[in-house]
């Protein structure tokens, strides 16, 4: 099924509805034989605490997303407003990624890790479900690494935003 999706009125309405529905932002990373890969996601959600599980989707199974889908484990970094430029880099094909100045290190298990993320969830895939041109990933959380807490970064109307300054953790 490599056909390009044909826009429908319902699909366009769905996109418009979700443009004004804020979502948290995450950077998902993995280590592959060809080097580290990563992408920005605004579809991460908690599914279960026993077993600890999350869900997210990727829009295609090629490039960084394809490499991530084939990795044995990956890290979902829940990020703050200080990471908005980094989120944009990981959302832009060909942009600079995994530089020392961005703060990346590697976990003992090999995955790229951003220590300044509010939380890093080390995961492995339980199941994938193809839906149109996207793939839904259900993942078990193996480890939770807490980081410094800042103001959450959200994605809305095709841009990154920060919650109001009166938001406290």
Q: What would your notes on this structure say?
A:
A 7-stranded antiparallel β-sheet has the order 3-2-6-9-10-5-4. Strands 1-11-12 form a 3-stranded antiparallel β-sheet, with helices on one face. By secondary structure, it is of the alpha+beta class. The mean pLDDT is 90. The protein has a single domain (24-160), classed as Roll (Pnp Oxidase, Chain A). 16% of the residues lie in helices and 43% in strands. It comes from Microbacterium oxydans. Residues 18-162 form the Flavin reductase like domain. Its EC number is 1.5.1.42.
Topology record:
Layout: H1 9-19, E1 23-24, E2 26-32, E3 35-41, E4 45-49, E5 52-58, H2 63-70, E6 74-78, H3 84-91, E7 104-106, E8 112-114, E9 119-131, E10 134-146, E11 153-156, E12 159-162
Antiparallel strand pairs: 1-11, 2-3, 2-6, 4-5, 5-10, 6-9, 7-8, 9-10, 11-12
């Amino acid at each position: 099924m490599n056909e390009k999706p044909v826009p429908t009125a319902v699909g366009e309405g769905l996109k418009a509805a979700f443009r004004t529905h804020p979502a948290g932002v995450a950077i998902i990373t993995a280590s592959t034989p060809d080097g580290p890969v990563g992408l920005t996601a605004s579809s991460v959600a908690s599914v279960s605490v026993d077993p600890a599980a999350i869900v997210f989707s990727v829009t295609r199974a090629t490039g960084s997303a394809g490499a991530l889908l084939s990795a044995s484990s990956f890290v979902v970094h829940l990020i703050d407003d200080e990471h908005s430029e980094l989120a944009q880099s990981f959302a832009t094909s060909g942009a600079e990624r995994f530089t020392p100045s961005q703060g990346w290190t590697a976990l003992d298990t090999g995955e790229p890790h951003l220590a300044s993320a509010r939380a890093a969830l080390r995961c492995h895939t339980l199941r994938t479900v193809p839906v149109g041109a996207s793939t839904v990933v259900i993942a078990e959380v193996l480890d939770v690494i807490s980081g410094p807490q800042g103001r959450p970064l959200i994605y809305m109307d095709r841009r990154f935003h920060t919650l109001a300054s009166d938001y406290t953790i």
